[in-house]
Each structure stands twice: as structure tokens, then as C-alpha cells.
Design brief:
single chain; mainly alpha
């Protein structure tokens, strides 16, 4: 998956101010993630190498924002952090890992579809209960 495919598929927010380098505080403000979380993502290998300024300050690029948008989507799926890190490792290893990446994402899709089915069943129960209470209130309010 290329960076452009990641941006398109993740449908992340546009890059702030159209520039291509950001401080950690700018990225935190843009993504809603804390600076601590961004540093942790880097420490555990979830983020690719982050460039540094000559003073050692992190300099995030648009490709990093794209990656963070994709990671955000993976988080929403409920994918375990260990699997996200594994996926990031596979991306860094190159194109020969496409089959492994595909399988990891397909398993996540199966899990998401299962959760959606459970939520649909739960929603049906809630709708039934709400309709029951609405009908009971209608009966009790009739003189």
C-alpha cells in the first residue's frame, strides 16, 4: 500500500497549512493524540523513523500524518497494538510482505464484521424494548 493509497483509504484530515514538516505539538493538535502517545508510537515501532531537526526536535512529514490517520482507523477496528506494530514492521520490510499484510487486514475485517453483527443484534433488542415502552406509555395515557 502506498502512502497515497493510505491517505485515500483512510480519508484522514487534510494536512495543516499545506506544509510538509510539523513539530510534535502541531501533530498532536492536528491528530488529537498527545505528544506522549506520539512518542510511545515511535518507541514501540508503530511509527516509521521520524526525521529530526539539527537541534533534535522531531519533524513529522505529511507521510507521517497519513500513517497516523491509517493507524487511527486500525485502532477503531479494535486491532490489538501488537498487531498494528506487526503490520508496521511488515510495511518496513517491503513489498514481499503484501500477502502477510493482506491476511492481517482480512482477519481484522472479519473481526469488524463480527462486531458489526453483534451490534446490529444489540440494536434490534434496544429497538424492541424502546417500542415496547412507547406502546405501554401510549396505552397508559389513554383515558
Amino acid at each position: 500500500m502506498t502512502v497515497m493509497q493510505t491517505r485515500t483509504e483512510a480519508a484522514g484530515p487534510p494536512s495543516p497549512d499545506g506544509q510538509d514538516h510539523y513539530t510534535i505539538s502541531e501533530v498532536a493538535a492536528h491528530t488529537g493524540l498527545s505528544a506522549y502517545t506520539l512518542r510511545w508510537y515511535e518507541r514501540i515501532g508503530l511509527m516509521p523513523h521520524i526525521d529530526r531537526s539539527h537541534t533534535g526536535q522531531r519533524r513529522y512529514r505529511n507521510r507521517d500524518l497519513d500513517w497516523l490517520a491509517f493507524v487511527g482507523k486500525l485502532r477503531l477496528t479494535g486491532m490489538p497494538v501488537a498487531d498494528m506494530v506487526r503490520y508496521a514492521e511488515l510495511v518496513r520490510e517491503g513489498q514481499h510482505t503484501f500477502p502477510d499484510r493482506q491476511e492481517l487486514l482480512e482477519q481484522t475485517r472479519r473481526d469488524v464484521r463480527g462486531r458489526i453483527a453483534e451490534l446490529q443484534d444489540t440494536l434490534a433488542v434496544l429497538d424492541y424494548k424502546i417500542d415496547t415502552y412507547a406502546a405501554a406509555r401510549g396505552v397508559s395515557e389513554t383515558p
